[in-house]
Amino acid sequence: MTNHLPRLGFRPTSLTVVLVLLLAAGLTACGQDEEGPGRPHGRSATGLLQSADRLRPPMPKVLDTSRVDIARLDDDLRSALADAARAARADGVRIEVTSGWRSREHQQRLLDEAVLEYGSLEKALEYVASPDDSAHVTGDAVDIGPTEAAVWLGRHGSAYGLCQIFANEIWHFELATSPGGECPPMYADGASR
Known about the structure:
It is a single chain. This protein is of the alpha+beta class. It has helices at 12-28, 45-55, 68-71, 75-90, 104-118, 121-124, 147-156; strands at 96-99, 141-145, 162-164, 172-175. The chain folds into two domains: 5-55, no CATH class; 68-192, Muramoyl-pentapeptide Carboxypeptidase, domain 2 (2-Layer Sandwich). The chain contains seven helices and four strands; from the N terminus they run H-H-H-H-E-H-H-E-H-E-E. A hairpin with a 7-residue loop joins strand 3 (162-164) and strand 4. The longest helix is centred in the N-terminal third of the chain and has 17 residues, at 12-28.
């Protein structure tokens, strides 16, 4: 069964590790840090979160062109994404490309997995395009994560020409307007395109 959460940059195992590390940091830090009124034996929530941030692996650079899925994106899409990523960073949001260009074979594998998951080609096409119809195969689409980055780009992307295309995929963006323009109405899902 395909889990669509990894496309959002979220892996349940990563969350589990972070929660365990937060708990461990809190238990081992009792009485070692920030003692004083209201915190006689432990760390503040901020201290625990900072500890977790140090333990979390760095997120990949948004436009790391050593990644083939980013290197093979349309140049204008990559440029717009770079501009948006700089603005998002100023707002404290880090944009990550969770999926960019895809080979036809990879796209077909995703579709085959979706058919198994959803039970029919018709239902699978609501979430995964065929290789002939996928904007990922042509380098004209990116999936963005984590969720806060996808939400930020959904709100501000049109300033850079980037638009959410499908109502059921908050992470999928394409260059669909000129910078500062208005995004076209979203399709309900991939099968509606």
